[in-house]
Amino acid sequence: MNTKPWLATYRENGIAESVNADAYPSVVHMLDEAMQRYAERTAFHSFGQRLTFAEVDRLSGAFAAWLQQRLGVKKGDRIAVMLPNLMAFPVACIGILRAGAVQVNVNPLYTPRELEHQLKDSGSEIIVIFNGSTPTLAEVATKAGIKTVITVAPGDATGAALPSPPVDARLVGSLAFADALREGASLTRTPVALTGDDLIFLQYTGGTTGLSKGAALSHRNLVANVEQFKATMPSAVRPGQEVIVTAIPLYHIFALMVNFLTYFSAGAESWLVANPRDMDGFVETLKQSKLTVFMGVNTLYAGLVMHPKIREVDFSHLHLAGGGGAAVVGATSAKWKEITGQFIREGYGLSETSPVLSFNPASIQSFSGTTGLPLPGTDIRLLDDAGVEVPLGQSGEVCAKGPQVMRGYWNQPEANAAAFTPDGYFKTGDVGVFDDKGFLKIVDRKKDMVLVSGFNVYPNEVEAVATACPGVGECACIGVPDDKTGEAVKLFVVKAPGATLTADEVIAHCRKEMTAYKVPKTVVFLDALPKSTVGKILRRDLRSVG
After folding, report:
1. Would you say residue 496 has pLDDT above 90?
2. Is the Cβ–Cβ distance between 42 and 242 less than 8 Å?
3. Which of 53, 151, 272, 451 could disulfide-link to 85, CB 3.0 to 4.6 Å?
4. Which of the 8 DSSP states describes residue 534?
5. Total Cβ atoms within 10 A of residue 123
């Protein structure tokens, strides 16, 4: 059995079989080189402001010095970052990494419950947070062990006085990011010796128990994934020539690795979109940018192709449109190509894999319906339920080994034991099939996870929250197809005896406890849930229930 059919395709298309995961000793070395090499080029645009690579170098250095000298940050300390796509994100991120700390990426839309867990679990005592998210933090800051709050306004790092939400008054003693940069400019940064083995990010992913787990990603993981992506798409990562629009959130590992680290290291000009839901403003950014590269999830593309002014955008320079986070729909790609001239080139990965495992290489000239070839240096095996590799053309669980695969979950020895095969392959929980050229197609998910607009939703978490709603006896959650979000959450509820309960009440309860994408879109009341002989809820049987 040919277990690596993609290698022949590599050879046919001049793709290297592997990359140097130690091309740089650390991500900091990689970013330092870019800031020196492209000093005078524009690195970022945001809200009509711009920063050059030299300015990012200066500001991030000032923040690193301030963290070290004023807060006593040491190598390995975890610092939470809860920001949308603002100029402060890359400046804070590079500053944190230069100080030798580990960045904990936090969704700004988290509820207090979600935020408290992530801060406690990571051991973060410092948080860099958007002003608009401070009311959420104020609910849990003390319980979560936060000692220092650094608040960010939209214009920070640019000097622009842009309108900003107020900082929650309960966060007494919070410090302004702008002040930290100002003070740090006169302080001395102490270089930190970093290696590929050092942690760079804790990237939280949904947990089957209802509590999210932090994928512990190293500098080597990210350097490797950057090098792998460049090796797969060299024509779309031209040094000092690319312009990328970043609408997917930087706290998501897809945008963090591809849009930020990969394209920053190549001297690209990045246009940050803080609020892609403002489609009019988003399209205006696209019109101004003259973009060459765009990355998105299917829902983002679907929204753009329906916008009345999308044809006013100059797409003549666009030569890569990439999709990930959720399956790209062929019809969406066709519509995008009709408007832009470029199909959507799909890839696949997870938080645990930094994230990209496979991508459609430059040789592919049309929408393939697959997630492409494993990246150079990545070995993927498809295993049956007994852990035996399946023959070519048959489906099995996608299990991956490569330099971009995490070392494990943060402080989760039991989860780690379950997440890897005895010979060290990470078990994704997704079911895939290889064709004879080595192209991977994801056909199903082994786990019950629901994928809403590229974000993981775990039924156990939704069920745990919903069960706490007064009047809910028991419940079960599944994912159902949705035209806008790919999948949506559907909740089946059995009422407690004598309870009077409406669907709106259940949804309102869930909305208080969970980020919007996790909230059930529909609630169906049943007299009983389908169960096995041992009492396990049979979620698959609910798919045939109206």
Report:
1. no
2. no
3. 272
4. T
5. 16
Helix/strand number for the chain, H first, E second: 16, 26
**What is the torsion angle, in degrees rounded to the nearest 10, for the CA atoms of residue 150, residue 151, residue 154 and residue 158?**
-40
Domain with CATH 3.40.50.980 in the chain: 30-194
**Do residues 156 and 178 touch, judged by C-beta distance below 8 A?**
yes
In degrees rounded to 5, what are phi and psi of residue 68?
-70, -50
Share of the chain above pLDDT 90, in %: 84
Q: Report the SS3 class of residue 66.
A: helix
pTM to 2 decimal places: 0.89
218 and 198 Cβ atoms separated by less than 8 Å: yes
Distances (CA, A) of 327 to 442, 445, 453: 8, 12, 9
pLDDT tens track for 26-67: 999 999 999 999 999 999 999 999 999 999 999 999 999 999
Q: What is the mean pLDDT of the chain?
A: 94
Q: Do 295 and 304 touch, CB atoms closer than 8 A?
A: no
Residues of the chain with CATH 2.30.38.10: 6-10+378-445
Distance of CA 281 to the CA centre of its chain: 23
| CA 122 from centre of chain | 17
Using CB atoms within 10 Å of the CB of residue 502, give its burial: 0 to 12 exposed, 13 to 18 middle, 19+ buried: exposed
N-to-C CA span, the chain: 44
Among the listed residues 166, 147, 488, 21, the one whose alpha carbon sits nearest the alpha carbon of residue 299? 488
What fold characterizes domain 450-544? GMP Synthetase; Chain A, domain 3 (3.30.300)
- 405-434 pLDDT tens trace: 999 999 999 999 999 999 999 999 998 999
C-alpha–C-alpha distance, residues 18 and 5, integer Å = 15
- Fold of the domain spanning 30-194: Rossmann fold (3.40.50)
